[in-house]
Specification:
The complex is a heterodimer of chains A (325) and B (244).
Chain A (H helix, E strand, L loop, with lengths): L1 E6 L5 E3 L19 H10 L8 E4 L5 E4 L3 E9 L2 E3 L2 E2 L6 E3 L4 E4 L4 E9 L33 E3 L12 E2 L14 E6 L8 H9 L2 E3 L7 E5 L10 E6 L4 E4 L5 E4 L6 E10 L4 H5 L6 E6 L2 H32 L1
Chain B lengths: L7 E6 L2 E5 L6 H17 L4 E6 L3 E6 L1 H7 L5 H18 L8 E7 L8 H8 L3 H9 L3 E6 L6 E4 L14 E4 L3 E5 L2 E4 L4 E3 L2 E5 L20 E7 L1 H8 L7
Parallel strand pairs in B: 5-13
Antiparallel strand pairs in B: 1-2, 2-4, 3-4, 6-7, 6-13, 7-10, 8-11, 9-10, 9-12
Classes of the chains: A alpha+beta (325), B alpha+beta (244).
């Protein structure tokens, strides 16, 4: 009763909304890179927002369903197919036993999420089911999935079904993803940039460098120069913090960021843009623009409300569907 | 110095706020940070997900929606800014004491476990014995934990052994390595890349994910190093970590 990994992808991990309450011990929150896709995939199958989902990249795994299941995919479009039939993102799918899910083409985005109704059996560590490979804890044995691993479902999903069924609705997620203009609030040390550096930050184009991963993105662009020191006493940083390295290059911290750092904090990406960042692959060009904190806070609340509405609508449709069944 | 008037409060995301007393490593300032940390833990304020003390700053990571419910009509940031302003005054008027523990950490300074020690004592013009005495005859304060799970930043070392970071960091530093960077000293909990000068190693497992309290160190603890011989190091390394 679960899934089997016929062929592992690059860094397939179980993730949830992250591990909080331990950053004072240097333990990073981690969690899904794309919080919107994680929540949407859960909502589509009737799960709580924080249920652990499978985060996958391209090349992606080939997955065998060893029992029938209600699933959803959200995030990147990697040309998902079930037994050779193309399936949509953001739509609940009833999948028969022994179906094979594979991803055929890196079309858009950077990571795709798979949820199953009621969730996967996962290891909890310090209150979270997210995978932390450094300490080999959380998720599936604290590590990336490997070929031949089997993940169990928490509950039996659905009665045996004869064929693949796409339930007749899709979640619309367009409002949660933006173009390449990323809004940021000013960082504490932005004032240490010289005039040219400040101008370049919002005028220049930065591309996501090869050395980018779940910890952070390297941003290739013009060197930004400072008028004062380039290192500070270590203090807290967060998902979305943009730091200036002594070389003049920028680094953008992502889900597995360290808890503290001493590089110049130029800016902090508004959290409504985390999903957009998470779906920006290596080589993608970004530009930054300023937003004030009060507006960022309002947008964050608005996004949470919209996601809550989406979740309510999904639950309603699911109940309706299964009561008429 | 009137600390109450020399701080800044600023956002480090749209859901995290930092109170910052400046760019000085100073036990008195850090003591205030630890007191504020303690008060915040005791108050257990709705919506606060993480409290991250550092050398001279403390950051609150919060759930905006939850904080707004108790904010009485102002923004979550403004609500927490007012809270931090009032805490600075509260703690400023009432220094009190923190509950930092006194911990002993065995360290072997044998050159086979301390790859930078010989070159360092040469530069500093000290004998190994003098260096070990200077590093171990001192009680260090844990100013903060960061960089890696359980990595404690301790200070400050005797000025005679202050040493810069290595020009190019090592790709792998063994777990338990004790290092110096500037006036700071610390222990690598895991094998990881690192640029600190390595001057010894502890047999203690200072981060154990299987324990309820996985980090041996807590911010605000006091630490002293006890020199041990190479044989003791290997003997102790065989024993499981003892803290709960």
């Amino acid at each position: 009763m679960g899934i089997s990994i016929l062929k592992a992808g690059i860094a397939d991990t179980l993730q949830d909304q992250g591990r909080y309450g331990f950053q004072h011990l240097g333990i990073p929150p981690g969690g899904a890179m794309d919080p919107v896709a994680m929540l949407v995939s859960n909502a589509l199958v009737g799960n709580q927002a924080n249920e652990a989902v499978l985060e996958m990249h391209f090349p992606s795994p080939i997955i065998l369903f060893t029992s029938s299941a209600l699933i959803a995919l959200a995030g990147a479009d990697f040309g998902a197919e079930i037994d050779g039939v193309a399936v949509e993102l953001h739509q609940p799918l009833l999948v028969p036993q022994n179906s094979e899910l594979k991803f055929t083409k890196n079309k858009s985005g950077a990571r795709v999420y798979l949820s199953v109704a009621d969730g996967f059996v996962a290891e909890e560590w310090l209150g979270s089911f997210g995978t932390m490979p450094l300490v080999q804890k959380g998720g599936f044995k604290g590590r990336n999935l490997a070929t031949n691993d089997s993940l169990l479902f928490k509950k039996k999903q659905v009665d045996k079904i004869a064929r693949l069924i796409a339930l007749p609705w899709r979640a619309s997620v367009a409002e949660f993803y933006f173009d390449n203009r990323i809004q940021c609030i000013a960082g504490a040390e932005v004032g240490s940039l010289n005039q040219e550096g400040i101008t370049n930050f919002t005028q220049a184009v930065f591309s996501i460098g090869i050395q980018s991963n779940r910890m952070g993105y390297r941003l290739n662009g013009p060197n930004l120069n400072t008028t004062t020191q380039k290192e500070y006493l270590s203090s807290a940083v967060d998902f979305g913090t943009i730091q200036l390295l002594p070389s003049g290059q920028l680094i953008l911290l992502m889900a597995d960021h360290q808890t503290t750092g001493g590089y110049t904090r130029i800016a902090h990406v508004s959290s409504t843009y985390f999903a957009t960042l998470a779906q920006s692959p290596i080589g993608k060009q970004l530009q930054f623009e300023w937003i004030d904190l009060a507006t960022a806070e309002k947008k964050l609340i608005e996004q949470e409300q919209n996601l809550q509405q989406l979740q309510n609508a999904c639950n309603f449709r699911l109940q309706e569907y299964f009561s008429n069944d | 110095m009137d600390l109450a008037n020399t701080y800044e409060i600023y956002p480090v995301s749209d859901h995290a706020i930092t109170l910052d007393f400046g760019q000085e490593i100073n036990a008195q300032t850090n003591q205030r940070i630890m007191l504020i940390f303690q008060v915040l833990l005791e108050k257990s304020i709705t919506g606060i997900k993480d409290i991250i003390p550092a050398y001279s700053s403390i950051c609150l990571v919060y759930d905006c929606k939850a904080v707004l419910k108790i904010a009485g009509g102002i923004s979550a940031y403004d609500f927490l800014k007012r809270l931090l302003d009032s805490l600075v005054i509260e703690v400023g008027n009432n220094p009190g004491s923190t509950t930092g523990r006194n911990l002993k950490v065995p360290v072997c300074y044998h050159p086979t476990l301390a790859p930078d020690l010989m070159l360092l004592i040469d530069t500093l013009q000290l004998s190994i014995e003098e260096f070990v005495a200077l590093h171990s005859n001192k009680i260090y304060r844990i100013y903060m934990i960061g960089f890696l799970p359980g990595f404690a930043y301790m200070g400050s070392v005797n000025e005679k052994i202050i040493s810069p970071r290595k020009q190019s960091p090592r790709t792998i530093v063994p777990a338990g390595s004790v290092g110096i960077a500037g006036a700071q000293t610390g222990i690598y909990p895991f094998a990881s890349p690192g640029g600190w000068q390595l001057i010894g190693r502890t047999p203690l497992e200072i981060f154990d994910a299987n324990k309820k309290q996985p980090s041996f160190f807590m911010p605000g603890d006091n630490v002293c190093f006890e020199p041990i011989a190479l044989e003791q190091f290997y003997e102790m390394q065989k024993q499981p970590s003892k803290w709960v």
